[in-house]
Amino acid sequence: MESAATFIDEKIKELGDWRGKTLAHLRKLIHDADPNIQEEWKWRGTPVWSHDGIVCTGESYKQVVKFTFARGASIEDPKKLFNSSLEGNTRRAIDIREGEKINEAAFKQLIRAAVAENYAVRAERAARKK
């Protein structure tokens, strides 16, 4: 059985254009921000990064590469990276178009904040069970 990392590697190669490069670059930033993050392959072809729950997904479309943060509405975004799915109560996303650059430090901070939020939610649930 192939690992999620292998599927993500194949997805990056399959895209073969700016979208693959963008996905690969942000994947590296995710791992730089949290070396303990886990890669998963869900929903028939979506890269997912998790730590105490889903942190974000990385989807590729014709015009954008979208990183959707599962608890994005609950985390601070001081550099205003979230630019999509802003109307919901839970998720927030970052759409990256061809040629756009991302604030790498701010992106890493969002990853760390999402992990911290997942941990807080898990700790709160555990405390309620006691």
From TrEMBL:
Source species, domain of life: Bacteria
YdhG-like domain mapped to chain residues: 20-115
InterPro entries: YdhG-like (IPR014922)
Protein name, per record: YdhG-like domain-containing protein
Organism annotation: Edaphobacter aggregans
